[in-house]
């Protein structure tokens, strides 16, 4: 009977230890089968990827390390590129600007103003888009058609009794 109770006590202690010791530990972790492959040691004899070691035969690239940027004596890319820093956005829209003060000078009687009228008076060129800016004062009512308007230009044209239309 004593042996039986001793065995039960040992079983209980073992179960308690098993409870504490359960769980995943760092030293249990292993890579998935086939995930870890040995490194290929090139250039270490003819039996194991040796001899030319993937460099082909002869030539400067077979004999020594040549920088990746080397272009065989041609002017390298890093010397061909422009030296100044910055970024030119190819999608940027370059507007010709016309201020409200210039519109007041060119059209003192008011009325309709289009891009063609501005071209005829020599304020802008024909092929580029036009933006009206709010610098200056406007005393006459102008009904202007242009590609873009600044917020201050819209306010000044509306205050003078005119209107804006974006084309």
UniProtKB/TrEMBL annotation:
Is this entry keyworded Transmembrane?
no
Alphabetically, the GO molecular function entries are: rRNA binding; structural constituent of ribosome
Residue ranges of domain Large ribosomal subunit protein uL15/eL18 in the record: 97-165
Q: Where is this region: Disordered?
A: 1-75
Q: Which residues form the signal peptide?
A: none
Q: Which InterPro entries match?
A: Ribosomal_uL15 (IPR030878), Ribosomal_uL15/eL18 (IPR021131), Ribosomal_uL15/eL18_sf (IPR036227), Ribosomal_uL15_bac-type (IPR005749), Ribosomal_uL15_CS (IPR001196)
Its Gene Ontology cellular component terms are:
cytosolic large ribosomal subunit
| UniProt keyword Hydrolase, yes or no | no
List the keywords (alphabetical).
Answer: Ribonucleoprotein, Ribosomal protein, RNA-binding, rRNA-binding
Skewed-composition ranges (Basic residues): 23-42
**GO biological process, alphabetically ordered:** translation
Q: Which branch of life, at top level?
A: Bacteria
Q: How does it assemble?
A: Part of the 50S ribosomal subunit.
Family per record: Belongs to the universal ribosomal protein uL15 family.
Please name the NCBIfam families in this protein's record. rplO_bact
Q: What does this protein do?
A: Binds to the 23S rRNA.
Q: What is the protein name stated in its UniProt record?
A: Large ribosomal subunit protein uL15
The organism that produces this protein has a lineage beginning with: Bacteria, Bacillati, Actinomycetota, Actinomycetes, Frankiales
Gene that codes for this? rplO
């Amino acid at each position: 009977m004593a042996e039986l109770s001793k065995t039960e006590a040992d079983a209980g202690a073992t179960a308690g230890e098993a409870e504490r010791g359960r769980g995943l530990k760092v030293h249990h972790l292993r890579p998935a089968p086939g995930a870890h492959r040995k490194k290929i040691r090139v250039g270490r004899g003819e039996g194991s990827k040796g001899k030319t070691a993937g460099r082909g035969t002869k030539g400067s690239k077979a004999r020594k390390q040549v920088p990746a940027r080397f272009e065989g004596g041609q002017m390298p890319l890093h010397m061909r590129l422009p030296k100044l820093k910055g970024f030119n956005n190819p999608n940027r829209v370059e507007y010709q600007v016309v201020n409200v003060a210039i519109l007041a000078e060119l059209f003192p009687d008011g009325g309709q103003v289009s891009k063609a009228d501005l071209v005829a008076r020599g304020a802008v060129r024909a092929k580029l888009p036009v933006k009206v800016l709010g610098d200056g004062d406007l005393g006459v009512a102008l009904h202007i058609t242009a590609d873009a308007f600044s917020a201050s230009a819209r306010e000044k044209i509306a205050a003078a009794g005119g209107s804006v239309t974006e084309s």
